[in-house]
Amino acid sequence: MAQSRILDLVKTQCRIFSLNFNPQRLRLGNKILRQRLRGPALAAWYPKKTVSFRDLQNTYKPLGLTTFDEAEDDREEAIQMSVGFYTRFALLHTD
Amino acid sequence: MSKVASMFHPKRLDLSGFVNTRLIRDHNKRNAFAQMEPERQALRYIIRNTSLPQRTRAQAQLQLSQMHCYTRPTQIKNRCVASGTARSVFRNFRLNRFQFRMQALAGELPGVKKASW
Quick one: which of A42, A93, B11, B96 has the most CB atoms within 10 Å? Predict the structure, then answer.
């Protein structure tokens, strides 16, 4: 088969499969364009944050619904207790 | 472009599970790379394309080398998701060998069984 016929065949093949026709074998860097982006796969290595209690609270507060965060309640109670203790302590030692 | 790493820090931490500074830093690098990857690939294409003028290619080389180091894929290191350790991390489980052993013995990894014959 003639060389020109084969070249024509390859050219048509390249057109159909949208490849780069490059019979001179020039270095056109097309292999870079063919590479897939691997950023999204790499960025998904660590587990992403899911819905937290605060998100739930923020979504339901405007609707007028009440939420009860037990840990937050415990914390506030502890603060109240310690504040009460220190004020009593201060009152005892002011005189 | 200013060359400070803080520009890649998120406003709020979007990670759950084990967290330490080095893990967050690696996470930021991953995000930075994902964000800038198209630009990096475009520059790499210009550099490799011998049909373009030499000046353009040299400029692209310079631009690529002057991008922030956080946008470089070689900066990324696989760390253990459960302990943040950077050594002997199994890619398939994202755990280091010790965490893998503990979780496997506790039966938390489906299909993993201690070999015995």
Answer: B96
Side-chain-side CA neighbours of A81 within 13 Å: the count stands at: 6
Number of domains in chain B: 2
Output the pTM of the full model.
0.78
Tokens of A88: 């009593």
Do residue B41 and residue B70 come from a single domain? Answer: yes
Question: What 3-state DSSP class applies to B87?
Answer: coil
Residues of B in contact with A45 (CB under 8 A): 27, 30, 78-79, 81, 94
Which residues in chain A are closer than 8 Å to B25, comparing Cβ atoms? none
Query: Which residue segment(s) compose the domain that B53 sits in?
Result: 19-76
Assess whether B53 and B37 both reside in one domain. Answer: yes
3-state secondary structure of A48: strand
Residue B117: inside a domain: no
